[in-house]
Every structure is written in C-alpha cells, then in structure tokens.
Amino acid sequence: MAESNAVEIRDVVKVFGFGEFAFSAVDHASISIRKNEFFTLLGPSGCGKTTLLRLIAGFEFPTSGEIILNGEDIAAMPPFKRPINTVFQSYALFPHMTVADNIGFGLTMLGRPKQEVRDRVAAMLKLVRMEKLADRRTSQISGGQQQRVALARALAPQPKVLLLDEPLSALDYKLRKDMQIELKRLQAETGITFIFVTHDQEEALTMSDRIAVMSAGKILQVDTPRAIYDAPTDRFVADFIGETNFLRGRIGSVSGGIAQVETPMAGRISATLPPDFVPDGEVTVVLRPEHACLWLPNDSAPCQTTGTLENIVYFGTDTHYHVRLQDGETQFMLREQNKPLQRQRFSVGDQVGIMFEENAARVLRN
Amino acid sequence: MTQPGANEAERSRDIRKRWLLSLPALLIVLAAATGPLLIVVLYSFLSPGPYGDVQWQPSMDGWIGVFLERDMFTETLSIADAHVSILIRSVMLSLVTTVVTLLFGFPTAYFIATRPERTRELWLLLITIPFWTNLLIRTFAVLQIIRNDGLINGVLMKLGLITRPIQMLFTDGAILTGMVYVYLPLMVLPVYANLEKLDFRLVEAAYDLYATPFRVLTRIIIPLAKPGLIAGSILVFIPALGAYVTPSILGGGKNLMLGNLIELQFGQGRNWPLGSALSITLMLIVTAALLFYVRNVGSQGSRHG
Ligand SMILES: Nc1ncnc2c1ncn2[C@@H]1O[C@H](COP(=O)(O)OP(=O)(O)OP(=O)(O)O)[C@@H](O)[C@H]1O
Ligand SMILES: [Mg+2]
C-alpha cells in the first residue's frame, strides 16, 4: 500500500514567525501522492501552496510532521540530497550559462560522466523541442522557450518527483493552452510524479489525475477532478471550483440518501446527502448553474421555483441568466449552452420558472 | 506632416546648437583633465633645477632615472635597485591588499546582502563609518594599536605571553594592515551592490539541482558576482598602488612605496623630472590594469540584472 505512494505528507505544520506573530502557513496537512500521478494543489492566493511545495523540495523545514519519500522521512534532508526537482514560477534559469549548460547542471552536480551529460542534454532538448537553441544564452530566448528549458532542466536528472509552482502563469492564454498539453505529454512520456501548483481551477480540472483543494493552510478535499466538481464535500470547495448556487434551508425528511430540504427561496428541494452526513437542521443546498434550466411560465412545465430575470450575459459558448428568486434576496444563476441560430427566448424583466435537473442538488455542511 | 529633408536639417541644426551650448563645459573639462597631465609629461623631459622646479633644458635623465642610476664618479649607468624594489614592493603590497580585502570583503558583502531589507542600510552605514574620519586619523589609530607600546603589545605583555614587545610598526605587515583597513569599504560596497541584485532564487534552483553549498558558491554566486568582485579589486588596487599616507606613517620612511618615492622627488630629492617620470610610470601601470579589466570583464558580454 505504502509502495504505491511517491510522497506522503503526514500531519505537516509550518509556522512562520514567533509569539503573537506566529502564523501557520500549512496547518496539519496530510496527503498521499501516488506514483506516476499528476497531482495538483489548488487554492486561492496565500493559502500555502508554495509553502507546501517548498517543504517537499526542502527549501523550508516543517515545524512538525513527516514528509515520506520512498518509505524514508526526508523532512530534515537538504534540497541537494532529495531526488526531487522543481520548476520555478520565475524559471530561475542561470543567466551565465547556455541553454544546454542549464539543462546539464543537475547531472554535472551529480558527478555523471561528461558523455552521459551530453547525451542526456541532447535527449532533453529533443523532448522539449528546443534542439536548435542549445547554445543560446537564457536571456536570448522567449518566455515560452525559457519555460521549456526550465522543464528540461528539472527533468534531466530523472527525479522521482517533479514540483511545478504555477509554471504557466506568466504565459499568455494561447501559449498556456499549448504548454498544458505539453506538460501532460511530458508526464506521460517520463512517468515521473508531477506535483503541480495552480490557482486556476480550470487548469487544475483539465490536467490533474487528482486535486487537493487548499484554504488557509488546510487541505479541504483530495479527489479526482470530476468528484471535486460534482461532489464537493465542503462549501469552500464548491464555491472555489466553478460557479455554484447556494440555497440555505432545513432538512425535513430523509430517505435513501435523499433529503427533502425546505428552503424559503425555492420551496422544497430534493437533494443528495453526502455518504457520512449526519442530518441536523440547518444545511446548504448547492446546485451548479448548468444543472438547471429556464422556462417561461406559459410553458407549463413542472417548475421548482419562479423568479424575475434580472440579467442576461452572453459568453459565446453559453449564456448566463441571473434570476431574483421569490424571497427578493437570493440571486440564482443558470447557464445554458448556445445553439446555432438560436432565437433569444427570454428578455430582462420576464417572470421565469426554474427547473432543476434530477439528482443535481446536493446537501453540504454549513 | 513635414518633408523628411526639412526634418533632417532641423535635427542637424538642433545637434549643432547642443554642441555649441556644451562647448564651454567641454573645454573646461578637457583643460582640467589634460592640462596638469600635459605639464607632468612636459616636466618629465626637462632637467631638474637646483632648488626644485625645472630648468628649460630638454633631458631624458628623468626617464632614465626611473629604472637606471648614474654612478656619481664614473658616470656609468646601472639598474636602480632601490627604485625597482620599491616598484615591486608597491605592486606586491597592492596585490596582497586586494586579495586580503577580497577575502574579508566578499563574506561581509554577502552577509549584508542576505540580511532582511530593513537592516541592510544599517549594516552599510556601519561599513562606511571609517569614511567619516580623515584618512590621517584612521592611519594614526592603526599606529596606536600596533606600535611597540601600543594596545596589542600592551595586552600581550600584561597577559605575560611576551616579555619584549613585538616589532609590528614600520614593517610591510604594518603597511598591509593599514591599507586593508583603509580600503576594505571600497571592496565591500561594489561587491554588495552586485550581490544585492543577485536573484537568490537562482541559489535555490542550484541547491535543488544537487549542488552542495560549496558548489553553489563557486558555480553560481561567484560567477554572477564577478563584475562586482573585479570592480572592487580595481577600486582597491589602484589607490593602494599610489598610496602615500599609509605607507609613510606605518612604514616609517624605510619601507617606501611608489607614492612616497614620488613625493620624495618633489620634496627633499629636488628632482621634479624624475618625480614626473615616476608619476607617469604609475599611471601606465594603472592603465595596464584597467585594460586587463576591460579585456576580462567588458568583453564578456554577460549582461544581466
Ligand atoms: N518566509 C515567510 N515568512 C513569513 N510568512 C510567509 C513566508 N512565506 C510565506 N508566508 C506566508 O504564508 C502564507 C502562504 O504563502 P504561500 O506563498 O505558500 O501562498 P500561495 O498559496 O503559494 O499563494 P500564491 O498563489 O499567491 O502564490 C502567506 O500568507 C504568506 O504571507
Ligand atoms: Mg505561490
């Protein structure tokens, strides 16, 4: 069981500062990262992602807790002894060396024979498609190319684990999309465990095998992208990943994992309960905007609730509708995919009905 | 809007006007920089006057005297051993001073550059404190410490470690100590300016790529700090080579350096042409050192920042 884990983080705490200024950047975090996994740390700015990554790399040492690599606690080992490499957000390429020397640096430091270093550098240049720029200085290549060199440099020594701290955030949209695919390809080709940090939820969902969502130093949920999106166990996770409607209410009755929740704004909602949930009065029902649809009242459909259409936002691929519910306070958001040559069915000010898709609503702890 | 021709004429008129306006300043700078130098060059080719000054009589004696010495009775020329040894001592002492200030200055600069930003200014201020005092007074302070009845000998004798004072004053070691003390800030400041710009994420990247702390120093930090190290070396080496006050007080007239030798020619020696020729020789050595710098750093082309 432990064999299949590349890195295990056990109850790690990192406190910065002393006394009354003490501050836990990482707060009792525990994660098991599997071998050959594309694992993502996702969370808002300042939640401790970089700190956790630096603990794994060895640039910081935990206040308490263990970091296990191949069955060995490496929490106190200096970075140059860990078989882990990092792709820095700023790339941190050595400006006084050529592209090839940058890529070969790790292997040279490991004392590998010159010929082996040369061969490996050539192979890495090929892997990241940079053969032609081997002798350039790192200041003479573009941002995207620097990114590739940083990747090649970190991959060259064949680390057990590769850490990537928001490696794509400095690139423009198009290049970022290309590099996302490139990263997935490199991970598949090398079979190295990737631990990837991002605050871009879309990037996390499209690239990861599993995601850990962090907030204020704590790990809130570790799961596959689909599970994180479809079945968030925490209000913060539901809010941070994608867009969500939150409806507060009280649990009326429960049967077969489905609760009937009485809400002041949308009446009685049938919502799925999380497996280990103990129903106790006040709860929140969550529903994704694309899991509901709009009707005009004369469509005579079985509506969950009604409201006033306040806003229509066109997004190209889909259209967002903001509906003020009956209680006059709650704003409900819906998303519908656009079809070719579609006529606009609704206009602002319309009285509309909202229908929930079956099994779409879920109960969350408050 | 306007034709390119008209535009160009306007621009060239503009440039001419700018040159005309800055001409007085340029003339003053030119005169101030080259005038005294030309006088020194001229004097080196004249004969000495009986009470100092020069006689308007062309002569190569000044230049011959730099390395050769005319026997008073036989008029034959031989190598001027005293001058050559002073020249060698000056170059050696300046080189050793440079190396010692490097050895002390680099760790000091690194220490300051790695302090939190708020406290760095305080450390820099401490480094520059010696500059607030006159050079003469600083040199006398060193003298107070190392002379026979000075601080070090006094303490050692009190402790009973020695029975007779150690002769430290009036040795090359004394000159070296004084020069290292005086010139250390000139090394620390440029090296610090360079290290302060150093991206310490590069240091982390090197650690991450299996470089031991020693390798990080030799492969990353020193190569990136090289321009600062060389600038500091030049700032120390050049004034050390022409140093006058420090060797004259701590060397005690016996252990002369080039600066003292030159002063001697304009003072007691009453041989201004020789003094001028020696000054120009010193300048040539400095120029050679600077050319060496330009060759080794200027052409390297590793501009980053
Ligand atoms: N060396 C340090 N000393 C004191 N506090 C620190 C230190 N490093 C990080 N912190 C604090 O720890 C918290 C987490 O920082 P961290 O850099 O890990 O955030 P992050 O999740 O990577 O954010 P971002 O997405 O902005 O990069 C922040 O509040 C930060 O101010
Ligand atoms: Mg970060």
Automatic annotation (TrEMBL), chain A:
Keywords: ATP-binding, Cell membrane, Membrane, Nucleotide-binding, Translocase, Transport. InterPro entries: AAA+_ATPase, ABC_SmlMolc_Importer, ABC_transporter-like_ATP-bd, ABC_transporter-like_CS, Mo/tungstate-bd_C_term_dom, NA-bd_OB-fold, P-loop_NTPase, PotA-like. Residues 7-241 form the ABC transporter domain. Its EC number is 7.6.2.11. Signal peptide: none annotated. It catalyses: ATP + H2O + polyamine-[polyamine-binding protein]Side 1 = ADP + phosphate + polyamineSide 2 + [polyamine-binding protein]Side 1. GO terms for cellular component: ATP-binding cassette (ABC) transporter complex. SUPFAM superfamilies: MOP-like (SSF50331), P-loop containing nucleoside triphosphate hydrolases (SSF52540). It comes from the Bacteria. SMART domains: AAA (SM00382). GO terms for molecular function: ABC-type putrescine transporter activity; ATP binding; ATP hydrolysis activity. The complex is composed of two ATP-binding proteins (PotA), two transmembrane proteins (PotB and PotC) and a solute-binding protein (PotD). Belongs to the ABC transporter superfamily. Spermidine/putrescine importer (TC 3.A.1.11.1) family. This is Spermidine/putrescine import ATP-binding protein PotA. It comes from Neorhizobium lilium. The lineage of its organism: Bacteria, Pseudomonadati, Pseudomonadota, Alphaproteobacteria, Hyphomicrobiales. The gene is potA.
From TrEMBL, chain B:
It is a multi-pass membrane protein. It holds the Pfam family BPD_transp_1. GO terms for cellular component: plasma membrane. Its main location: membrane. It is found in: Cell membrane. Residues 87-295 form the ABC transmembrane type-1 domain. One of its GO terms (biological process) is transmembrane transport. Belongs to the binding-protein-dependent transport system permease family. CysTW subfamily. This is ABC transporter permease. It comes from Neorhizobium lilium. The lineage of its organism: Bacteria, Pseudomonadati, Pseudomonadota, Alphaproteobacteria, Hyphomicrobiales.
